[in-house]
Design brief:
alpha+beta, 2 domains, single chain, elongated, TolA/TonB C-terminal domain, 4 helices
Length: 120
């Protein structure tokens, strides 16, 4: 009789990790990660990105999604582009590095969308 193939990624992870790590420890770790990721920090100072001249001439528009690391004081310590046009991503990262967020508990990661529209 053939073994049943597990199609669920979650089922495979529980099967593999469940043997060496208690499920309660896994759930606590996952919960902590989600809490830090989901923290919503208000933007206190927002600097608009400079639309790259080459992107204007080529009429490139779109949204750049960024993961922004913010320290306890609200200062941006790291910015990583998740998606979007590379030329626009550089401009978005440069602008968001100048942003300031509301102070919070410890370091957190905030998702930010920067919209580039020629009609702005």
């Amino acid at each position: 009789m053939a073994k049943r193939v597990e199609r669920s990624w979650r089922a495979r992870m529980v099967r593999v990790l469940g043997r060496s790590v208690p499920v309660s420890v896994m759930l606590v770790c996952l919960g902590m990660g989600l809490q830090m990721r989901a923290e919503d920090r208000a933007v206190k100072l927002r600097v608009a990105p400079v639309y790259p001249e080459i992107a204007k001439r080529m009429r490139v528009t779109g949204v750049v999604k960024l993961d922004v690391t913010v320290d306890a004081t609200g200062k941006v310590t790291d910015v990583k582009a998740v998606s979007g046009n590379n030329v626009l991503a550089e401009a978005a990262q440069e602008a968001v590095r100048k942003w300031r967020f509301a102070p919070g508990e410890g370091t957190s990661t905030v998702s930010v969308n920067v919209d580039f529209n020629l009609n702005q």
